[in-house]
TrEMBL record:
Pfam families: FTSW_RODA_SPOVE. Keywords: Cell cycle, Cell division, Cell membrane, Cell shape, Cell wall biogenesis/degradation, Glycosyltransferase, Membrane, Peptidoglycan synthesis, Transferase, Transmembrane, Transmembrane helix. It comes from Heliobacterium modesticaldum (strain ATCC 51547 / Ice1). GO terms for biological process: cell division; cell wall organization; peptidoglycan biosynthetic process; regulation of cell shape. The keyword Acetylation does not apply. GO terms for molecular function: lipid-linked peptidoglycan transporter activity; peptidoglycan glycosyltransferase activity. This is Probable peptidoglycan glycosyltransferase FtsW. The chain crosses the membrane at residues 45-66, 78-95, 144-160, 165-182, 188-205, 226-244, 264-290, 302-327, 339-360. It is found in: Cell membrane. Belongs to the SEDS family. FtsW subfamily. The gene is spoVE. Peptidoglycan polymerase that is essential for cell division. Its EC number is 2.4.99.28.
Amino acid sequence: MRLKPRAPDFTIFLAVILLLTFGMIMVLSASSVRAAYATNNPFYFFQRQVLWALAGVVVMFVVARIDYRRLAPFSKHFLIFSILLSLAVFIPGVGKKVLGATRWINLGPASFQPSELLKLSVIIFLAHRLSQNPHKLEDLRRGLGPYLLLIGLIAGLLLLQRDLGTAIAICGAMYLMLYVGGAKPQHMIGLGVAGILGILAAAVLEPYRMRRLTGFIDPWSDPLDSGFHTLQSLFALGSGGLFGAGMGQSKQKYFYLPEQHTDFIFAILGEELGWVGAVCVLLLFFLLIWRGIRTAVSCPDAFGSLLALGLTVQVGLQAIINMGVVSGLLPVTGITLPFISYGGSSLVFTLIGIGLLINLSRFSR
């Protein structure tokens, strides 16, 4: 049966545009000092982010107009291609190492992070496969087993890139999709326990992750090293008060807080816009998640429902992890805040995902 598309969910679009506006403003403010020091141009990062945002919005509108069911036959090809690109970061001369992490492909004046494409392709692949034969998941060995191997492959690949935060976000979205897709609760409980143990093992086996964990438990035990990020982030949030210090008035961005325009931009937002600004951003994310879940529930087919769920959970988990790190509720992980943090690959592929979500809302009941 061919479904007639309707008007898209305007609330999703509005929430994303407002978040993107917050992001543009905060990238301009948070990156100005670093940009002036590094490039002698305080607008350097802002100008690049604007270009990426415009490109992302254009692609978002294009994706929103294409029938999402056309993606299903190509889901396996998307996944294989994104895995190959993720492996390419380890090729000398192709991969680019930043702060000890090898996550980027060097493209000359710009760089590309394959894990952002991997997030999207994994969700499309899983939604397509799970919608074909959901009852097969009840068999642990022949049904659920291959998906567990895929989770292990994705997690291992991202851990080799020293990207634990993205691994948690992707595997968390896959976990919920498997549960909703028909896996038995007892199998999912076991998988959840194994996942938690895996995260702890990843932290214990890597000295820098272990330092982050101990710094999270007691940041004041080592305020100049393992606890530095957390303490400086809390200083920024705490000094913002109710209404903030005002736009552009952050003190922490003067090289006190590391990664002030990427991973910790929410701390600068809290410092300049205060509790009110931080809550506004939080409510916009909740609004986006609510409308995304509503779209998943009302989709006409299993592929659309699982795809909407995966896209929504992916963005929601990434936002929760980032804000949890910034507020000291989670150990430090290198993961950006969707729509807000500086970063071209992350922004463009997140907007592509939103384009798919808007697309799905056009066919929802």
